[in-house]
Amino acid sequence: MRTYLKEKIGNPELFTGRKQELTFYLTWIERIKQESSLSSALLSRRKTGKTALLQRLYNLTFEKADMKVIPFYYEVKEVKQWAVDFCQDFFLTFIYQYIAYKTRNPAYIDLPHNADDYFTAASDIAQQEGLAHLIGDIRGIGRLVKEGREGPVWEAVRDFPWKLAHRQHESIVQIIDEFQYLNSVIYWDAAKTNLADNFASAYMSTAEYKNAPLLVSGSWVGWLFSILTKMTGRFKIDFLESLPNDEAVEMVFKYSYLEQIPVTDASAYLIARISEGNPFYLSAIMRSDCPGKDLTTEAGVLRTLEFETLDERGSIKNTWMEYLRSALPRINDHHAKQIILYLCKHKDRKVSRRELTNNLNLTMTEEELAEKMEALIRADIINRGGSSVRYQAVQDNIFDKVFRGEFGGDIEEFDEREITNEYKALFEQVQHKYRQLLGKYSQEKGAFAEYHILKKLHTAHRNNRLFCSMVQNLPEDFEFDEYESVWSYYGTAQGRPDFQVDIFARAKEGVSMIGEVKNRGHDPFSGQEAREFLTKMETLKELEQVTDAIGFVFSRNGFSQPALAVLQQHHIAYSDDARWLE
Prior knowledge:
With 582 residues, this protein is of the alpha/beta class. The chain folds into four domains: 12-239, P-loop containing nucleotide triphosphate hydrolases (Rossmann fold, 3-Layer(aba) Sandwich); 245-313 and 418-443, Orthogonal Bundle (Helicase, Ruva Protein, domain 3); 321-397, Arc Repressor Mutant, subunit A, CATH 1.10.10; 449-581, Trna Endonuclease, Chain: A, domain 1, CATH 3.40.1350. Helix content is 48%, strand content 13%. The protein has 22 helices and 15 strands. The strands form four sheets. Strands 2-4-6-1-7 form a five-stranded parallel β-sheet, sandwiched between helices. It has a five-stranded mixed β-sheet with strand order 11-12-13-14-15. Helix 1 (19-30) crosses helix 2 (50-63). The longest helix has 28 residues, at 416-443.
């Protein structure tokens, strides 16, 4: 996949997993052509991979020109903006992304558009590219912007995507990230004194048009949720879950290879589990500045986690403190801390407002407490416990550590050494749990065969003779290339099921390699599996425009005779050599 819209994740290969979400939303986008997709909202806290997913969806949709759905991605910036300036930026971003898709020229995506003459520039580009149907709209909205008419220009640019789609018989998906900021950073006046605190509500009607539905998202879950609930029925709401364990392990190995951070199979499994599949926690541990960081041992992993959650330099702690600082000044600090600590201590159950009032001796009315609890919910510091009067702590052990480490001494009278001992006991419990998990891992030796092979392919060109001897059915003149990239591949093709290929080693100059890994301890690779792999290989070559590639299958338990017949007939290399796993 090419990267058209620059992704914040950095190296595109760091994007990991999200197979279920990609499949769901790509199907949702596909159904826009039949106007059967409702506007949707994807909610998750900051740094949990939401933006990475949205930007990857944009790039996959842009790449699949035969899908015939035009993608538009916009991030609402957390900076005070006059409504007219916002509308100009929003509209021209859409125009240039539309032109980029229609011309298949991604260079248009990043063109600047924040000066008065850029409407003229956009109009000229539309004329040059044979998109004259845009010119009247560009000039008309340019006049509204110049006149500074906040209300009319917002209505015009907000409705423009679905009106253009209707007029041109096209389909558009509008991906708007950080949607909640529409109500907090945009002002009706140029002096920025009159906050447009209901700006997003204008989408109540626009979101119902199914030829250009919205996929909105935000990193302040409680805040965005409160906005969306006022638009009853307009948005289908989904929550971005943590990565499943196999994808979390894959992410650890990616960071390990791409950023040269040593891990072992056992420590990679430990990091994945102790982070609870949270992409931010995973990346924070892998990239931690913990002095003497060692992620190859169990003790080193736990020491790094302790640094990240308790030390002032820890990125996990600093991120959670940003959430806390946003909420505590808006309500009584002492009461808020008491409430959070109490919920953390009883995180396994839902707590009522009456219980909080009685057990914490809160001196406030029911209405005042309800207001404070709502503030904490909007700041993503506590969760609603299934009703308007019950609450629950964030179901996250790491947050509990951060909060108690920072505020425990302010709330109750106990020695800080007691907190330290409590953490040590908790870490010992975690260590014990993961010793058991690592024991289970040992019984499943070979579970990470895919990652061993991927890692070896990166350097196989340095010892061609050895690695060629480990593979059968290779061409006589075959040599491993110094590959441009080596990783597992997730693909989606028009009219065909989504698929995954375990190995895609893209060659810089020579022959690429497309591979399948089967590490089960019983049953050889079958003829049916060989035929399925052949189909996936041909699909990948078509999608990635790979003209020179060889197939490769590793099967720890060997190959059936029908499988060997298929592999040999189609010149696919194969191996069951245990040296790939050493």
